[in-house]
Amino acid sequence: SDPAPGARFGFSVGVDGARTVIGSDRAGPGGDQSGAAYVLDLAAGTWVETTKVIASDSAPGDQFGYAVDLSGRIVIGAHLDDDRGNNAGAAYVFGP
Fold first, then answer.
1. Whether this model's pTM surpasses 0.90
2. pLDDT, tens digit, for every residue of 36-63?
3. Which of 23, 24, 42, 64 fits 18 for a cystine, CB–CB 3.0-4.6 Å?
4. Residue 91 and residue 80: Cα distance in Å, rounded?
């Protein structure tokens, strides 16, 4: 929904049936290379973006979306998150 040069949309991808999550680790919604992920659902044979996910504590350089997984729940990694120390990383879990 919001392409940008160098955002690396599709750097990581997770698929579970009719849902996919796509990482864009260098997108900049929370500052340069803060990252984002996009959830798409298959509807009538077409992939439709349903949600854009940004870390609640998004910060420049975190690279949220560097790794993604989808198996019922959505897990998104920010491998350079600094909340627990310099580039310690973090994982965010969404869903039931």
1. yes
2. 999 999 999 999 999 999 999 999 999 9
3. 42
4. 11
One-letter identity of residue 13? V
Sheet of strand 36-43, all strands in order from the earlier edge strand to the far edge: 9-16, 19-24, 36-43, 46-53
Collapsing DSSP to helix, strand or coil, 90 comes out as strand
Residues 6+ apart with CB under 8 A from 73: 93, 94, 95, 96
Spell out the residues 6+ positions from residue 76 whose beta carbon is closer than 8 angstroms to its own. Answer: 21, 23, 37, 53, 55, 64, 65, 67, 68, 91, 92, 94
